[in-house]
Structures are given as C-alpha cells and as structure tokens.
Amino acid sequence: MRLMYKNRILSDKLKKLAEYFPAIVITGARQVGKSTLVKHIFENMDYVLFDPLQDVENARKEPDIFLKNHLKPIILDEIQYAPEVVPALKRRIDADRKAGQFILTGSQQWSVMKSISDSLAGRIVILDLYSFSLGEIAKDTSKPWLLAWLENQDSSIYDKTKKLQTGLTLYEILWRGFLPEATLMPLEHVANFHDSYLRTYLERDVRQFADVSDWALFRRFVSLVSALTAQEINYSQVGRELGLTPQTSRRWLDILKATFQWFDVPAFHGNTIKRISGKSKGYIADTGTASHAQAISSPQAIGGHPLWGALFETAVVNEIRKQCALLNPMPTMYHWRTHRDAEVDIILERDGIFYPIEIKATARPSRRDTSGIRAFRNTYPDIKIAKGLVVAPTDAFIQLSEDDYAMPWDFCGTMG
Fold this sequence. Notes:
The protein is an alpha/beta fold.
C-alpha cells in the first residue's frame, strides 16, 4: 500500500537552501523520509539510489563517467555507499557554482559522511531530517509551540486550550513511535515494522560500518540502552550489565549515535562553585524503537510500565529537537542537575537568554514541578533566564507561578 505524503516542516527551509547552495546533504536515520521528501520537492530531478553491495552504474569505479551520463540537477540517494563520487562532485561544483545542482542524502554520521562534508566544505549545506513531529502527524501547519514561545512569552496571547489533533492517544503515539511508516500503518502491523526495522538496522547499517563480533550481544545492548533513555549514561554500569568494558560500551553507543539512533544532551555548568553533574544525558531517537526493544506489547501497556515517564520525556525532547531545526542558528541545548538532585530537563540558550523546560508525565502539573527551574534561577542569578515551562500531558496552558507555566505536550502554539 502506498502511504500518503505528509508535508514536512523542513520543506520550506530545504527549498530556500536549494536556491543558494550548489549542493545540499540531507542526513538522518533510516526510514525518516529523506528519499520521500527530496523526490516530492524535487520531483523533476534525475534520481539515483546507491547500494552497499552493488556498484550502481559503475559509479564507484568510474565516478566521472557516471556523472557525465546524468543531467543536472540530480538526487544522489544514500551517498555514503558511493564516496568515490564525491571528488568528482567537487570538481563539477568548482567549475560551476550554480545553486541546486546536487541533492545528496545519507543515513550515517560515519567517517564516510565526515569525509564527504570535509571534501565539499564551503560547497554544501547539511540539513538533518528527523522522524515525524507531532505537527506533521496532525497535518497542522501552525507555528510550532517552541518557536511561538521563544518569540513571545506573554501568556495572554495564546489560545490556551488548542491542541494538535493527531487522532491518536498519547500511549499509542509513544508505542508507534514517530517514524513515518509506523505512524501511518494499521496498529496490528506496527510491531512487525519495528522488528524489521531493528533487524535491517543491525544487519545492514551497523554491519556495513562497524566491527561488531557478537550481534546477539549488540542487540541486547540496544535493548539495554533503550531502557536507559532519558538518563545520564554511566558506561561502566552499561558494561557490567552485559559483561562489556566501558570502552566497548562507549564505542557501541557511538555506533548508535553515528546511525542517528541515539543522541546526547550535554550538561550545563555555568559559572558556579556548586557541585554540578557533568555527565551528558542520553536519549533514544524513537520511542517506538524503545518500546519494541523493551518488548512492550501494546499502547495500553505503556501506562503501567516503569519506562512510561522516560518514554514521555524522550518524546518531548525529540519534539524540541525537531522544532529547533527550524531555527537558524539552532539554540544550544543542555540539561542541568546538581548532586543534590535539583534538575531541569532541557535548557535552551538563544541570544544570551536561557529557556528552562521541565518535562513531567502528569496530567495535573503543579507549582511543585517548577522546583528545579527555581533552583536553576537561584544558582545563576547573573544570567538572563526566561520564564519556565513545564511540558506535560495536560489539557490547557496554565500559570503555575509568577514566572512559570504548564503547557500541553501537544500544544498547538497558535495565538488567540
């Protein structure tokens, strides 16, 4: 069955970049919709999909001949499988700097993609594509809530009860995850999709780019780190659970990062003498992947699962990343925690202002949920700190204190 195309929030940004840069590289995990996006926006372009096993059109062996046999502009999909083409691309761009000639996609942040970025430095722009945002699932074109909040923190201008209409429950969204195909297929097939996705990821992407001797153990590692999402990562702890050295745990987690399955949020230190945690906080890139890796059998099972709060936080942090990608430059993202366990889940820094965001898996957020934000303000009285947000599965945008508000995680962001 052919899935209906949904407009992506990065579409306009991609079109504008193609009007200025000769080459664009779109990176992201497998199945986030890179190919679908570029073929939809640049529907009249020539298109080539590279393969890890087959040398498509002899491109790796004879890249110059390959390019001469294709008219520009052209989409080169999964370019990491044909890195030999990159020097030939560079020569053509140096000879002709016309905008929008080459659209490249890649599914790894591996040495190959780094080499491509280095080789084409000054000639390309890189755009990260994530899985669906809530707005994309709901087919809503309103300004995302984060952009509205960063622009104006006057709570009186918001339609406080308007939420995105996804047609799905919160538990179902978390269980399905945000990969486009998983959000659109019948619920009965979602578990099969995630099983296939994980197998393909292990057997194709990781095997292609990493030396892993024990694949069953690596799959157990994926399951373990899925259970550790939304936590500070202790490599020694992970190693002990599976009989791995901390070095192997770090290397394997780097593999997950390189293939867009995992990301870190660094700790915020600031200028303080208090004891502050310096560990990064880690998140899996998709709650559906985590649910499947943890053998959560249904959306309803999430409600009583020990990972419920961590999965909700993971979904919200991923949503914030997706919305940040619309901004240029993107805000810097941190987390903050003291050794006395005062914490703020996300702190965004933009234009010298810090925006604290707490994430709580409760339908009734209260002033108590702003304690971490208050501790952050007290610790750093000399920096500019914006009004705080508590993002929760609540029904309306409400004020919790003089400086802090609670907001539905699926808030529409429209103004009254």
